[in-house]
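ok new one. same drill as before - C-alpha coordinates go in, u give me an amino acid for every spot. 302 of them this time. try not to just spam alanines like last time pls lmao
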Protein backbone atom coordinates (compact mmCIF):
# COMPACT_ATOMS: atom_id res chain seq x y z
CA UNK A 1 0.00 0.00 0.00
CA UNK A 2 1.34 3.39 -1.04
CA UNK A 3 1.15 5.05 2.36
CA UNK A 4 2.89 2.13 4.09
CA UNK A 5 5.77 1.49 1.69
CA UNK A 6 8.24 3.06 4.13
CA UNK A 7 7.55 0.18 6.54
CA UNK A 8 10.14 -1.97 4.75
CA UNK A 9 12.82 0.52 5.75
CA UNK A 10 12.05 0.01 9.42
CA UNK A 11 12.05 -3.76 9.00
CA UNK A 12 15.52 -3.57 7.46
CA UNK A 13 16.77 -1.07 10.05
CA UNK A 14 15.45 -2.94 13.11
CA UNK A 15 18.20 -5.61 13.33
CA UNK A 16 20.85 -2.97 12.61
CA UNK A 17 19.53 -0.84 15.46
CA UNK A 18 19.43 -3.85 17.78
CA UNK A 19 23.05 -4.73 17.00
CA UNK A 20 24.32 -1.17 17.44
CA UNK A 21 22.40 -0.63 20.69
CA UNK A 22 23.72 -3.93 22.00
CA UNK A 23 27.28 -2.90 21.13
CA UNK A 24 26.81 0.48 22.81
CA UNK A 25 25.44 -1.16 25.95
CA UNK A 26 28.43 -3.51 26.09
CA UNK A 27 30.96 -0.71 25.55
CA UNK A 28 29.25 1.43 28.17
CA UNK A 29 29.35 -1.42 30.67
CA UNK A 30 32.95 -2.42 29.94
CA UNK A 31 34.17 1.13 30.38
CA UNK A 32 31.94 1.87 33.38
CA UNK A 33 30.29 4.84 31.71
CA UNK A 34 26.69 4.15 32.69
CA UNK A 35 25.22 5.46 29.46
CA UNK A 36 22.10 3.33 29.95
CA UNK A 37 19.60 2.90 32.75
CA UNK A 38 16.61 0.58 32.75
CA UNK A 39 14.21 3.43 33.55
CA UNK A 40 15.57 5.64 30.79
CA UNK A 41 15.51 2.90 28.19
CA UNK A 42 11.96 1.85 29.07
CA UNK A 43 10.81 5.48 28.88
CA UNK A 44 12.38 5.84 25.45
CA UNK A 45 10.64 2.67 24.27
CA UNK A 46 7.32 3.85 25.70
CA UNK A 47 7.50 7.24 23.96
CA UNK A 48 8.43 5.55 20.69
CA UNK A 49 5.40 3.27 21.01
CA UNK A 50 3.08 6.23 21.63
CA UNK A 51 4.50 8.04 18.61
CA UNK A 52 4.18 5.02 16.31
CA UNK A 53 0.67 4.24 17.54
CA UNK A 54 -0.48 7.79 16.97
CA UNK A 55 1.22 7.88 13.57
CA UNK A 56 -0.66 4.77 12.48
CA UNK A 57 -3.93 6.21 13.78
CA UNK A 58 -3.70 9.45 11.78
CA UNK A 59 -1.63 8.31 8.79
CA UNK A 60 -4.58 7.51 6.52
CA UNK A 61 -6.16 10.91 7.15
CA UNK A 62 -2.93 12.78 6.50
CA UNK A 63 -2.20 10.73 3.40
CA UNK A 64 -5.63 11.65 2.04
CA UNK A 65 -4.90 15.34 2.68
CA UNK A 66 -1.52 15.13 0.97
CA UNK A 67 -3.03 13.24 -1.96
CA UNK A 68 -5.59 16.01 -2.35
CA UNK A 69 -2.86 18.65 -2.31
CA UNK A 70 -0.87 16.65 -4.87
CA UNK A 71 -3.81 16.97 -7.24
CA UNK A 72 -2.82 20.66 -7.57
CA UNK A 73 0.96 20.15 -7.82
CA UNK A 74 2.83 22.81 -9.74
CA UNK A 75 5.86 20.92 -11.08
CA UNK A 76 6.54 17.48 -12.54
CA UNK A 77 10.10 16.14 -12.14
CA UNK A 78 10.65 13.34 -14.65
CA UNK A 79 14.29 12.30 -14.19
CA UNK A 80 14.50 9.82 -11.27
CA UNK A 81 17.92 10.95 -10.01
CA UNK A 82 16.84 14.59 -10.02
CA UNK A 83 13.51 13.65 -8.45
CA UNK A 84 14.94 11.67 -5.52
CA UNK A 85 17.98 13.88 -5.02
CA UNK A 86 15.94 17.07 -4.90
CA UNK A 87 13.34 15.40 -2.65
CA UNK A 88 16.07 14.47 -0.17
CA UNK A 89 17.42 18.03 -0.07
CA UNK A 90 13.95 19.61 0.13
CA UNK A 91 12.79 17.16 2.81
CA UNK A 92 15.86 17.83 4.95
CA UNK A 93 15.38 21.59 4.59
CA UNK A 94 11.73 21.35 5.63
CA UNK A 95 12.72 19.27 8.64
CA UNK A 96 15.26 21.93 9.62
CA UNK A 97 12.56 24.61 9.71
CA UNK A 98 10.06 22.36 11.49
CA UNK A 99 12.69 21.50 14.10
CA UNK A 100 13.61 25.15 14.54
CA UNK A 101 9.97 26.10 15.08
CA UNK A 102 9.67 23.27 17.61
CA UNK A 103 12.30 25.08 19.69
CA UNK A 104 11.13 28.66 19.05
CA UNK A 105 7.38 28.37 19.75
CA UNK A 106 6.20 27.07 23.11
CA UNK A 107 3.13 25.39 21.64
CA UNK A 108 5.34 23.15 19.52
CA UNK A 109 8.02 22.92 22.21
CA UNK A 110 5.39 21.38 24.49
CA UNK A 111 5.28 18.50 22.00
CA UNK A 112 8.99 18.32 21.20
CA UNK A 113 10.19 18.59 24.80
CA UNK A 114 9.73 14.86 25.35
CA UNK A 115 12.68 14.21 23.04
CA UNK A 116 14.93 16.47 25.13
CA UNK A 117 13.70 15.39 28.54
CA UNK A 118 16.31 12.67 29.08
CA UNK A 119 19.47 13.36 31.03
CA UNK A 120 21.00 10.38 29.22
CA UNK A 121 22.27 10.35 25.65
CA UNK A 122 22.46 7.06 23.80
CA UNK A 123 21.03 5.40 20.72
CA UNK A 124 17.69 4.67 22.40
CA UNK A 125 17.21 8.41 22.96
CA UNK A 126 16.85 8.58 19.19
CA UNK A 127 13.59 6.66 19.68
CA UNK A 128 12.47 9.03 22.46
CA UNK A 129 10.05 10.65 20.08
CA UNK A 130 8.11 13.88 20.19
CA UNK A 131 5.17 11.67 20.99
CA UNK A 132 2.36 13.92 19.74
CA UNK A 133 4.14 15.21 16.63
CA UNK A 134 2.28 12.91 14.18
CA UNK A 135 -0.77 15.11 14.77
CA UNK A 136 0.76 17.96 12.75
CA UNK A 137 4.00 16.72 11.17
CA UNK A 138 2.56 16.00 7.73
CA UNK A 139 1.38 19.61 7.42
CA UNK A 140 5.05 20.47 6.90
CA UNK A 141 5.14 18.07 3.96
CA UNK A 142 2.32 19.78 2.04
CA UNK A 143 4.64 22.26 0.25
CA UNK A 144 6.74 19.33 -1.01
CA UNK A 145 3.65 17.60 -2.38
CA UNK A 146 2.56 20.85 -4.01
CA UNK A 147 5.96 20.95 -5.73
CA UNK A 148 5.22 17.61 -7.37
CA UNK A 149 6.63 15.01 -4.99
CA UNK A 150 4.24 12.10 -4.48
CA UNK A 151 2.85 11.76 -0.92
CA UNK A 152 4.14 8.20 -0.49
CA UNK A 153 7.61 9.25 -1.63
CA UNK A 154 7.66 12.19 0.78
CA UNK A 155 6.75 9.93 3.69
CA UNK A 156 9.32 7.35 2.53
CA UNK A 157 12.08 9.96 2.41
CA UNK A 158 11.14 11.25 5.85
CA UNK A 159 11.44 7.73 7.24
CA UNK A 160 14.82 7.26 5.57
CA UNK A 161 16.21 10.46 7.07
CA UNK A 162 14.73 9.52 10.46
CA UNK A 163 16.68 6.26 10.38
CA UNK A 164 19.88 8.27 9.99
CA UNK A 165 18.71 10.69 12.68
CA UNK A 166 18.55 7.93 15.28
CA UNK A 167 22.18 6.96 14.66
CA UNK A 168 23.58 10.36 15.67
CA UNK A 169 22.34 9.89 19.24
CA UNK A 170 25.56 8.42 20.59
CA UNK A 171 28.57 9.39 22.68
CA UNK A 172 30.67 6.56 21.27
CA UNK A 173 31.66 8.36 18.07
CA UNK A 174 34.05 11.29 17.99
CA UNK A 175 34.68 13.86 15.30
CA UNK A 176 34.36 12.68 11.69
CA UNK A 177 36.70 15.07 9.92
CA UNK A 178 35.58 16.63 6.61
CA UNK A 179 32.16 14.94 6.88
CA UNK A 180 31.33 17.42 9.64
CA UNK A 181 31.13 20.22 7.08
CA UNK A 182 28.20 18.54 5.33
CA UNK A 183 26.54 15.94 7.57
CA UNK A 184 24.94 16.21 10.96
CA UNK A 185 27.25 13.97 12.99
CA UNK A 186 27.02 12.59 16.55
CA UNK A 187 29.25 15.45 17.68
CA UNK A 188 26.86 18.00 16.16
CA UNK A 189 23.81 16.33 17.65
CA UNK A 190 25.34 16.11 21.13
CA UNK A 191 25.54 19.88 20.92
CA UNK A 192 21.87 20.04 19.99
CA UNK A 193 20.94 18.09 23.13
CA UNK A 194 23.26 20.10 25.32
CA UNK A 195 21.92 22.17 28.21
CA UNK A 196 25.08 24.31 28.15
CA UNK A 197 24.27 27.97 27.35
CA UNK A 198 26.58 28.00 24.32
CA UNK A 199 24.77 24.97 22.88
CA UNK A 200 21.22 26.24 23.29
CA UNK A 201 19.08 26.02 20.14
CA UNK A 202 21.86 24.89 17.83
CA UNK A 203 22.30 22.23 15.14
CA UNK A 204 18.73 21.55 14.04
CA UNK A 205 19.62 19.53 10.93
CA UNK A 206 18.54 15.91 10.53
CA UNK A 207 21.02 14.66 7.91
CA UNK A 208 22.67 17.81 6.55
CA UNK A 209 24.38 20.36 8.80
CA UNK A 210 24.69 22.86 5.95
CA UNK A 211 21.36 24.47 6.87
CA UNK A 212 22.66 25.35 10.33
CA UNK A 213 25.85 26.78 8.84
CA UNK A 214 23.83 28.74 6.28
CA UNK A 215 21.21 30.13 8.69
CA UNK A 216 23.51 30.85 11.64
CA UNK A 217 22.41 28.12 14.06
CA UNK A 218 25.57 26.02 13.98
CA UNK A 219 27.81 25.37 17.00
CA UNK A 220 30.76 23.02 17.24
CA UNK A 221 31.29 20.73 20.22
CA UNK A 222 33.81 22.53 22.40
CA UNK A 223 33.12 21.62 26.02
CA UNK A 224 31.57 18.84 28.09
CA UNK A 225 27.91 18.39 27.28
CA UNK A 226 25.22 18.59 29.95
CA UNK A 227 21.99 16.81 29.03
CA UNK A 228 18.49 17.14 30.43
CA UNK A 229 15.85 19.67 31.46
CA UNK A 230 15.02 21.57 34.61
CA UNK A 231 12.57 19.72 36.85
CA UNK A 232 13.38 16.23 35.65
CA UNK A 233 12.07 14.89 38.95
CA UNK A 234 8.61 16.03 37.87
CA UNK A 235 8.67 14.27 34.48
CA UNK A 236 9.23 10.65 35.44
CA UNK A 237 5.65 9.35 35.19
CA UNK A 238 4.47 7.87 31.88
CA UNK A 239 1.79 10.52 31.40
CA UNK A 240 3.66 13.46 32.93
CA UNK A 241 6.67 12.94 30.67
CA UNK A 242 4.36 13.81 27.76
CA UNK A 243 2.20 16.54 29.28
CA UNK A 244 4.42 18.30 31.83
CA UNK A 245 5.06 21.34 29.59
CA UNK A 246 1.34 21.55 28.76
CA UNK A 247 0.62 21.66 32.49
CA UNK A 248 3.21 24.41 32.94
CA UNK A 249 1.65 26.35 30.07
CA UNK A 250 -1.78 26.03 31.62
CA UNK A 251 -0.43 27.31 34.94
CA UNK A 252 1.03 30.36 33.15
CA UNK A 253 -2.26 31.02 31.35
CA UNK A 254 -4.06 31.09 34.70
CA UNK A 255 -1.84 33.92 35.95
CA UNK A 256 -3.29 37.45 35.83
CA UNK A 257 -1.91 38.94 32.62
CA UNK A 258 -2.96 41.00 29.58
CA UNK A 259 -4.46 39.12 26.65
CA UNK A 260 -1.33 39.64 24.56
CA UNK A 261 0.79 38.11 27.30
CA UNK A 262 -1.52 35.11 27.52
CA UNK A 263 -1.14 34.61 23.78
CA UNK A 264 2.65 34.78 24.04
CA UNK A 265 2.61 32.15 26.77
CA UNK A 266 1.36 29.82 24.02
CA UNK A 267 3.08 30.99 20.83
CA UNK A 268 6.05 32.86 22.28
CA UNK A 269 9.45 31.32 22.97
CA UNK A 270 9.78 28.80 25.82
CA UNK A 271 10.76 30.55 29.04
CA UNK A 272 9.11 33.86 28.08
CA UNK A 273 7.44 35.69 30.99
CA UNK A 274 5.36 38.84 30.91
CA UNK A 275 6.49 39.93 34.37
CA UNK A 276 10.20 39.39 33.54
CA UNK A 277 10.78 37.53 36.79
CA UNK A 278 13.82 35.29 36.84
CA UNK A 279 12.82 31.70 36.24
CA UNK A 280 14.57 28.55 35.05
CA UNK A 281 14.33 28.19 31.29
CA UNK A 282 12.13 25.11 30.77
CA UNK A 283 14.12 24.33 27.64
CA UNK A 284 17.38 23.70 29.45
CA UNK A 285 18.24 22.23 32.82
CA UNK A 286 20.65 23.36 35.50
CA UNK A 287 21.28 19.89 36.87
CA UNK A 288 25.04 19.78 37.34
CA UNK A 289 24.83 16.07 38.10
CA UNK A 290 24.05 15.35 34.44
CA UNK A 291 27.41 16.57 33.14
CA UNK A 292 29.09 13.96 30.96
CA UNK A 293 32.22 13.90 28.89
CA UNK A 294 31.24 14.28 25.27
CA UNK A 295 33.09 11.20 24.00
CA UNK A 296 34.13 8.54 26.46
CA UNK A 297 34.14 5.34 24.42
CA UNK A 298 35.58 4.94 20.98
CA UNK A 299 36.51 7.63 18.49
CA UNK A 300 38.74 10.58 19.18
CA UNK A 301 38.02 13.24 21.73
CA UNK A 302 36.23 16.20 20.12
Amino acid sequence: MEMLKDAVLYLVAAPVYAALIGAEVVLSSLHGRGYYTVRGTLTNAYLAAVNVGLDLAVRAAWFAVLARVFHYHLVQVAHPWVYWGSLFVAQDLMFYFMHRVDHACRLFWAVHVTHHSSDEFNLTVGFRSSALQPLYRCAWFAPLVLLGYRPGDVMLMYSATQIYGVLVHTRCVGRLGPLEWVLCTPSHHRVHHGANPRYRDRNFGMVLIVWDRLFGTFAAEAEEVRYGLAGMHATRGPLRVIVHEWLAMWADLRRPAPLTARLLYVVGPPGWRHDRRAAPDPKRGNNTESVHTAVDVGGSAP
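The chain is about 50% helix and 0% strand. and btw The CA atoms of residues 231 and 285 lie 7 Å apart.
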